[in-house]
DNA sequence: ACTTTAACAGACAGGTCTGTCTAGTGTAAG
DNA sequence: CTTACACTAGACAGACCTGTCTGTTAAAGT
């Protein structure tokens, strides 16, 4: 394997933490899957909390890439805004989708761990993106539209996880379209 | 105290489980707050899982009461539908609001505990209520509108918990109103 | 008066968790 | 060749967890 211990740890943590929860999964499971000694984990990430933060930072980055890639497939401002929901549709269609990693981690974490900051950062980025795209799409009140779309976005991930509703993203997308129409002066 | 050990246990569990999570809080904390011996807990609820299920069942019941009370304050079908979001606004305005108890518990729980069934039951009830109210309000496709409103509903609880956005319920309510208008043939 | 019942306090077993520490192994650079 | 470094394996400490068990107390039913 050409990967470093650091990468293998992060990969193992990503899979296990996302699928079973950051609290449920113990250090031993992570190092076993990564094929790494416990001391290496503590030398590399300092603590379990440090590993969790790295996991969330990595998640943030990969979500950012996925979403912006979808957005940049389009030139039309409306299509660019709606592309965020296309990215969401892809995500929840994955066979091992377990909801939003940040929502889940935040529900499990104690308030003093660095988790809340990581989630705030991620959510701030999503909100900012939706606001920018709403503005470019000509929405009358971009902040308001972005906040509304955020409700749909989060609601979709909840419905997908808890009700196994894979069509939620389409529903959110078409609703977003209608809201965008209503919010765009002509 | 005129309450039974059973009630005190449920009250203590409700506060602690909701505020800190079902996984984080241990049995000892619960019985200490309830002022009850450990054996009593196990005689009464069988296991921690049993107590968690009782907590969620109780939560389901109290949510049901809160929401139906708001709905029944109105006669107008539109107002009845929107009243669900009034109940949500009340909830998230509470100083110790920590999001939807079912979303949180489900994120913490292992898939085989009875938690997933309890959440499915609750969500089924909410969905059914929204469907009925949508139908009575004259929506063209009540199931579809209900599912869309569910996205707003869940999204609101997420925004309230994670972004400390107390205005999310108003936003969801006015969005729901617009969607209802659009979905009602005249 | 006697017995049953429900509750109490708290020790205990057996397991899991995080984090530290010791000791050994391989590898690459000087 | 040797020195430095990164890693491995695994024992260990100390805490916490669920669940069981013993023994005691107090009230209520018969």
TrEMBL record, chains A, B:
PROSITE patterns: HTH_TETR_2. This is TetR/AcrR family transcriptional regulator. InterPro entries: BetI_C, Homeodomain-like_sf, HTH_TetR, Tet_transcr_reg_TetR-rel_C_sf. Keywords: DNA-binding, Repressor, Transcription, Transcription regulation. It comes from the Bacteria. Residues 26-45 bind DNA. Residues 3-63 form the HTH tetR-type domain.
């Amino acid at each position: 394997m050409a990967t470093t211990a650091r990468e293998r740890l992060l990969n193992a943590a990503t899979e296990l933490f996302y699928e079973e929860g950051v609290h449920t999964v113990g250090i031993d499971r992570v190092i076993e899957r990564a094929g790494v000694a416990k001391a290496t984990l503590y030398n590399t990430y300092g603590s379990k909390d440090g590993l969790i933060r790295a996991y969330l930072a990595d998640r943030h980055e990969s979500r950012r890439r996925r979403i912006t890639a979808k957005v940049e497939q389009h030139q039309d401002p409306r299509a660019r805004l709606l592309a965020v929901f296309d990215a969401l549709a892809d995500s929840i269609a994955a066979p091992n989708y377990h909801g939003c990693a940040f929502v889940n981690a935040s529900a499990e974490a104690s308030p003093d761990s660095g988790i809340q900051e990581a989630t705030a950062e991620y959510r701030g980025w999503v909100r900012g993106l939706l606001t920018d795209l709403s503005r470019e799409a000509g929405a009358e009140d971009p902040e308001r539209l972005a906040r509304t779309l955020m409700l749909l976005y989060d609601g979709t991930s909840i419905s997908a996880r808890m009700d196994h509703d894979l069509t939620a993203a389409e529903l959110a997308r078409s609703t977003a379209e209608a809201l965008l129409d209503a919010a765009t002066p002509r």
